[in-house]
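# step 3/5: fold
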Amino acid sequence: MMEKAIESVAVPSAITGDGIYDYNPRRNYARVFEISLGVFALIGIVVMSMRLIGADSSQNANVVQAKNDLGALYNATLLLELDTGKGPLGCPLGKTATGRNNEAPLDSACSGIFLTPSRSVCGCGWTSSDIKTWKGPYAEAVYDPWGNPYYFDGDYRPYENRIGRNGTALNNCKTPPLGRGIPVLVSFGPNGNGSNVYDCDDIFIDLSR
């Protein structure tokens, strides 16, 4: 008896564009792996973009919060003046205060916003009668979104961008420097650089009258 010849079946190779399916399992696994890598890479890009957008949004939200806080603190200075006849540091509200001790954080007794004023050396100074008529605290938010206290500065010089405290003025902010001191309530912004630096990310409200 003659044995029946066994016909060999050719396994078609991968061919693109003609609709023939690749029967090679190893090749299929490789293709699935490549597709998976592409999908994961795309997901990574999307997630990174979301994180960047979130960071920007968070920063913008902090700036908005600081501006809102400063508006509320301005109202607090009006109440302080109504009760005591004076603004922060015992100075006439809206007037430039020059000289020593003309700036202080709003969480200090000198400012008169949050704590009972002190008769210690504070700007223009508080008297016993001022302290008796004080009815504060006049504000709750005395710290900015970056965890630093808001300040009163009696002769703040906007946008001078000094090199360190009382250093050389670079005058390189987008907004030109004012060229003179004004009384302000100020947040030192995201970088937290302190008083007498006047750098470009400060957020302040002008109290001038």
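# step 4/5: annotate
The first strand starts at residue 103 and ends at 105.
# step 5/5: archive (pending)
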